[in-house]
Amino acid sequence: MLKLSHVKKTFNKGTVTEKRALTGVDLVLNDGDFVTVIGGNGAGKSTLLNMIAGVYPLDSGVIELDGKDISRMTEPQRAKYLGRVFQDPMRGTAADMQIVENLALAKRRGLHRGLAWGVTKEEKAEFPPLLKKLDLGLDTRMEAKVGLLSGGQRQALTLLMATLTKPKLLLLDEHTAALDPKTASKVLNLTEEIVAENNLTTLMVTHNMNDAIRLGNRLIMMHEGHVIYDVAGKEKKSLTVPDLLQKFEEVSGGEFANDRMLLS
Ligand SMILES: Nc1ncnc2c1ncn2[C@@H]1O[C@H](COP(=O)(O)OP(=O)(O)OP(=O)(O)O)[C@@H](O)[C@H]1O
Q1: Do the Cβ atoms of 140 and 156 come closer than 8 Å?
Q2: C-alpha 183: how far from its chain's center?
Q3: What is the tens place of the pLDDT at every residue in 195-227?
Q4: Residues enclosing ligand 1, CB less than 6 A?
Q5: What's the gap in Å between 144 CA and the centre of ligand 1?
Q6: What domains are there in the chain, each with its CATH number?
Q7: How far apart are CA 151 and CA 164, in angstroms?
Q8: Residue range 82-109, pLDDT digits in tens
Q9: Dihedral angle of Cα 106, 110, 114, 119, to the nearest 10 degrees
Q10: What was the ipTM of the complex prediction?
Q11: How far is CA 144 from CA 95, 96, 132, 135, 182, in A?
Q12: Where is the ABC transporter domain (predicted)?
């Protein structure tokens, strides 16, 4: 379970560029919750994920994971529990290393790396079936350098790596936004499969409202640094994009503005 209590973050405090990114986030994710996150430009979506991952220190509030206060833990300490996929396919994998080496490293997440960490025989046998599931032809290219892969192949691999050792929480930050529509759809299907298979607790930021409605069991909308709408189950599934836009206007008193959403 993930629990955020009164989480606040202001960037560049006391300067002309001061920005209140999170103004008091209260959020509880139960085990197995797959929550999609939407909101306008600068609503605080990425900051929310960054604060959970420990990229920046909290100003105030508490973040708990499975009952443990992780608020003061460093980013590498929290990385043991978290899987994360970013928008940029270049992040999350090592371009100069082979597919099999990347996977072997992902498998050792949170463990102390010995001097000789090489890929074991067992792993060489274990990874191809997992790669085959991605259906991107990577299972026969285990020794290929990751830098040679397409953006979609790389995102699918990153997703596999982020979930290879079951994370307590999976953070997806617009992880299909940089892909062409067909590849994006494939990676989203994979996301659904992997999350369901492993019953992963997941937070997925997306600018695509249709995806936000279709995927997951719960949807939250952020505005001006906090959650303004939280809907789950049947009510969520029956939503339409116009419903969401109307909801946003009702709660925020303004028009929904997200450049990337309008371009999608
Ligand atoms: N490292 C930072 N330094 C200064 N300001 C920041 C930083 N990160 C985010 N912000 C500011 O905090 C606010 C929230 O940003 P955030 O990236 O979380 O929004 P978002 O909801 O993800 O928006 P978008 O959909 O436009 O990416 C914005 O005004 C942003 O400019």
Answers
A1: no
A2: 17
A3: 999 999 999 999 999 999 999 999 999 999 999
A4: 11-12, 19, 21, 39, 41-47, 258
A5: 36
A6: 1-81+200-264 (3.40.50.300)
A7: 20
A8: 999 999 988 989 999 999 999 999 988 7
A9: -20
A10: 0.97
A11: 10, 10, 15, 16, 24
A12: 2-249
